[in-house]
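Quick question, first post here. What does this chain look like in 3D?
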Amino acid sequence: MREVLKCHPKSVVIIDDRIIERCYGDLQGHTHRRFIADKGEDVYHNFHRGYDIKPPRGESIKMVEDRVRSFAFEITNFVKEHRCNVAVVCGNNSMRALRRYFEKLTVPQMMKLENKYNDFRDYVISCTT
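> Answer (accepted):
Ran it through. Tokens below.
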């Protein structure tokens, strides 16, 4: 975001907790390798890629999607109303949910997404009624 602001210093930055990264609860701070060694590959896969399975005291992808969906709806209306460009910077799991919203993906399609850190998506929102 800092790089964008260098070229667009008049941009407005809004921080919105609805697009923060997924909370992994009790798994926060554990490496994948260590968790798999302790709990097993199947348990890891269920927490990591299970749509509605949440780690203890954490969030499921479905929970992330629920909060991101309201953000996506709001930002779509904002773009239509103000006829402007918007850049969204967010965590990987929030990006999955945003892509599902804008690309009309199924849950299984969303769950297979891998978002590269140097990649971006460009969506056009029609401002006509």
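The chain has one domain: 20-111.
The chain has a mean pLDDT of 90.
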